[in-house]
Amino acid sequence: MASIIDEFEDVPADVLEFENWRPSHEGSHKLGSGDLLLLLPVAVFFDGMQLVLMLSSLAGSLVAAIPILGWFMGAAINATGAIIGAVLSIFAWLTFFTWFKIKGIDLGSAKRAIRIMATTLVETIPYVAGILPTWTVVILYTYYETRKEEREKST
Hints:
Layout: H1 4-7, H2 13-16, H3 33-63, H4 69-102, H5 110-123, H6 128-131, H7 134-154
Helix pairs in contact: 3-4, 3-7, 4-5, 5-7
């Protein structure tokens, strides 16, 4: 009985090495419309969660108007919302950073790096994070910017 290893004897060694593997985007878009259909709901989810956290923080402020017990409950609600919001912003950044790197989009350019870091910082500001759909805007802008760069390279 032949083992699985025996079946790969005739395959060149460089084919079996995966450490230098990079996704190939030749002949296709780095960030296609299918990617946008997947990225956009994720960005809307993160922005929606920021909105929910902002509304809970406002509720915490209203609860804080109740003397003594409300002060502690309001502070606890606000602190919890701030911590969850910061963690959510970092997780969103890691999600989109990983997604763009897998798709071969260079995030090392100064414009893109500043845009994503600024979005992460804005998302950690209380009340502002819930009002502005920053992740959705960044995803749309990066999508259109990537498509524009591809059009310019092809001409």
